Amino acid sequence: MRDMMQQNMDEYLPLRDVVFKTLRQGILTGELKPGERLMEIHLADRLGVSRTPIREAIRKLELEGLVTMIPRRGAEVAQISAKNLKDVLEVRQALDALGVELACERITEEGLQELKDACDYFAKVTATKDATVITKADVALHDVIIRATGNERLQQMISNLSEQMYRYRFEYIKDSSYHALLIEEHRRIYESIAARDKERAVKEIQQHINNQLNTIMEHLNLS
Length: 223
Hints:
The structure is a single chain. By secondary structure, the protein is mainly alpha-helical. 73% of the residues lie in helices and 4% in strands. It has 10 helices and 2 strands; from the N terminus they run H-H-H-H-E-E-H-H-H-H-H-H. The radius of gyration is 19 Å and the shape is elongated. The protein starts with a helix and ends with a helix.
């Protein structure tokens, strides 16, 4: 985590923001696990900072719902709840359905080639078994579709939601048994957009999101 903090420092952010981004990234990627206690002294020593920016970062993370304050225990990484997962994926499914519809209308030949390349790259990096690399490739693939819409407001909304989804997506992708399914789903989404088939594209993206929801719920034993 300290290496991650050093990378963030290169952005010349105030120290409190660097600490916040570092802890937030640790939670989203699972380095800091659900239920793990966030002890100020330990984190301050680990990151080489005073307790003040740690305390400020924890408050901000609590406001984002990534940290929970427990009486007589202090701060803990928030558990992944079925309710929050469903809420996020319901919104993402609606936005992605709009995204693929618009992409069918507006994507260029260059955009289609970029999407095909993104599908091929995702399939290639699954061989690495590196969940961080694979997750980034998955995000990049979906970003190609949303950029193709040309709708900046939609891009902004999905970008904000993607950060909330990252935690769930990472849990899904780090299990390699799902990779073949993801590769096939991406291929079908690409083919439907390339065919400018809106109805099929919406169906494929909705199935893609539903599969994520069901798989994550099962994987994390949520009900």
